[in-house]
Amino acid sequence: MIFSFLFKDNPFYKFGEHLFVGVANGYYIALYWHNSLRPNLYEQLAAGNYIYVVPLLLGLMYFTRFIPRVAWLVRIPIGFMIGWGAGLSIPAFFQAEILRQLQGTVVLPAIFADAATGVWALIILIGVSCTLVYFFFSKEHKGVLGYTSRVGIIFIMIGFGASFGYTVMARVSLLIGRIQFLLGPWLGLIE
Amino acid sequence: MKWYEIISRIDRRIIYLLLTFFVVLPFFIPLTIPQNIMPQTQKLFDFIEAIPQDDKVVLISFDYTPQTMPECRPMAIALLKHCFARNLPVIGVSYDPQGPGLAVEAFATVVDELNAHAVTREDSLVYGEDYVYLGWKSGRIAALLEMGENIKGVYPRDHFRNAVDSFPLMQRVNNYKQVAIAIVLAAADYPLDWIRYPQTRYGVKVGTGLTAVMAPKYYPFVQTGQVSGMMSGMKGAAEYEKLILDKGYAKELGTAETGMNSQSMIHILIIVFIILGNIGYFFARRKKSES
């Protein structure tokens, strides 16, 4: 049914699409109730752990958006989540994605113990530097800055090409998986 | 219509038909297209090879989804076969809501296959002793951090509602200190959370099995050593299948290797279409400028 959309939109595709949305919603509601809400809230309150009233109230405040007179209350749980998320994420993000990545870009003499590794380390350094120059917009890209940013564009294009190639591979894999299912377990034409 | 206009405006339905034909063809005409092993896949294999037996466990996070099964399921199967062949205990978890059913299926497939050939109790895989599946948890960042202190605090019960304390395997696993590597099989950015939180705070080694579309984002993490090995897409899965076959941990190749033959055919077809489209475009542009 879903593959029939490749020809053109039709009622069979629409039926398949709506069926999927319905099944997915049912699955998520059951999963969240049995694995999250029931053990983490309902059973805790039933056991007399009344501190769990606090997350219950914070959760209910999200629904105040639907009542204009008290809609401002929604800012409380949103503020709580932003504060918690930012406090947790900022140091972890800096450590994992900036400091460690900077360390990985720095070329040290020890890297040249293996010639190939040394060459790749230099290419990474040049690529990172030139790409950063391309995103430096405070000065017109002329002269040395212009040449360097053009090298940066080449690295960016190679990156886009790699991403596109991998995306094609991922999407084709999805089709291969469905064909394997249709020819195998469904039609029994292949093992 | 001129020839260059025809090749640059091929009906998409013809392209879909050709794609389907070239995907199906290798299933009926067996091809042997050689696959080289990429360094990041080899690194993951070598890492698991180097884990001492009777020491630490391998933690696998099953975070793929039904639509990405063709890429991630063969990774899960190959990884489980590798770990069980080396007698490494496996703990499974999930942070994607769609993960639990697929994790249970992957465990069952491998365990049933290996137990079918078991002769003695020692050859058999027993739930709770050799492997455990703890299930899905919401609020994964809090869960990932809390597991650094006490895994049983986060998962007092497993996916099947059994008390985790009752399992011999879990009696010797308290936190990440007993985990040799956490391997995240994911169709979304879950590995990044493992790198940001458990690795930054507790030094957990992280490996990944990713859909191909996610792989380019994680190469910098392999280069810095933050990711100890990576399988990228169906190709990564096929490579891992080949590695465990060559080492004698599996009797035959899995579904990824078969799929890679179709994959290679489709890549050639897409390259041909890209070349045709470009030829059509440049001829059309030249004719336009001449006129």
Please explain how this structure is put together:
The complex is a heterodimer of chains A (191) and B (291). Chain A is extended and about 65 Å long. The model of chain A has no long low-confidence stretch (mean pLDDT 91). The two termini of chain A are 24 Å apart. Chain A has a domain at 107-191. Chain A contains five helices and no strands. By secondary structure, chain A is mainly α. Chain B is of the alpha/beta class and 291 residues long. Chain B folds into two domains: 3-28 and 268-290, no CATH class; 39-252, Rossmann fold (3-Layer(aba) Sandwich). Chain B is 54% helix and 13% strand. Chain B is built from twelve helices and six strands. In chain B, strands 3-2-1-4-5-6 form a six-stranded parallel sheet, with helices on both faces. The radius of gyration of chain B is 22 Å and the shape is elongated. The mean pLDDT of chain B is 92. Chains A and B meet through α1, α3 and α5 of A and α2, α4, α9, α10 and α11 of B.
Write the layout of secondary structure elements.
The complex is a heterodimer of chains A (191) and B (291).
Chain A: H1 11-46, H2 53-61, H3 75-105, H4 115-134, H5 143-186
Helix pairs in contact in A: 4-5
Chain B: H1 3-8, H2 12-28, H3 39-50, E1 57-63, H4 69-85, E2 90-94, H5 99-116, E3 131-136, H6 140-146, H7 151-154, H8 168-171, E4 179-186, H9 190-202, E5 206-210, H10 215-224, E6 227-232, H11 233-246, H12 255-290
Parallel strand pairs in B: 1-2, 1-4, 2-3, 4-5, 5-6
Helix pairs in contact in B: 2-12, 4-5, 4-11, 11-12
